[in-house]
Amino acid sequence: MVVIDSLSGYLNAMPGEKYLNSQMHELCSALNQQGVLTILIVPQHGLVYAAEAPVDISYLADTVVSVRFFEALGEVKQALAVIKKRSGHHERTIREFKLEQGKGIRVGSILKDFQGVLTGAPVFHGTRDQIMKISDAPK
After folding, report:
1. Percent of all residues in the chain with a pLDDT value above 90, rounded to a whole number
2. Omega of the bond leading into 6 within 30 degrees of 0 (cis)
3. Among 36, 59, 64, 110, which one is least packed by beta carbons within 10 Å?
4. Is 5 helix (H, G, I), strand (E, B) or coil?
5. 68 Cβ contact partners less than 8 Å away, ≥ 6 residues apart
6. For the chain, how big is the Rg over CA atoms in Å?
7. Separation CA 129–CA 33 (nearest Å)
8. What is the mean pLDDT of each run of 10 residues along the chain (139 residues)?
9. 58-76 per-position pLDDT tens digit
10. What SS3 state is found at 17?
11. pLDDT digit string (tens) for 12-25?
12. What DSSP designation does 46 have?
């Protein structure tokens, strides 16, 4: 497994940044031929809105997962959505998730009463019991 976290840092470290797309294509192809799982992390600039990423290499990805922060009931929460999966079916819902120390990842219900979670400006049209409670948070 190879993880590049983040591509913007990789881009800043490159002297010939205009060739990043072709270099990443060659690198990912070579790693794939060797059976290596490659994870590329591209941060989205801006905490509250989906701004353009510093580099777009989504065409290289077999799977694209979006992780967004959002605010609900006075808490900063995280949402997870699979945006692209090249082969096979995948769930197209947006769900809240938490990383719990010692327990791993906890995925909540579909955020069906929110609009705009992936843009970073959600509007909630539901009730409190539809969101993971603060008491569920790691201590």
Report:
1. 18
2. yes
3. 59
4. strand
5. 44, 50, 78, 79, 81, 117, 118, 120
6. 17
7. 48
8. 87 75 89 94 63 69 86 84 86 89 90 76 72 56
9. 788 888 888 888 887 788 8
10. helix
11. 787 766 778 888 88
12. -
59 torsion bin: left (phi>0), alpha (psi -120 to 50), beta (else): alpha
- Please give the mean pLDDT across all residues of the chain: 80
d(CA 24, CA 112) in angstroms, rounded, equals 36
Find residue 110's DSSP bridge partners: 95
Name residue, tokens 């905490």: 47
CA distance 50 to 37: 27
- Both tokens assigned to 50: 């989906």
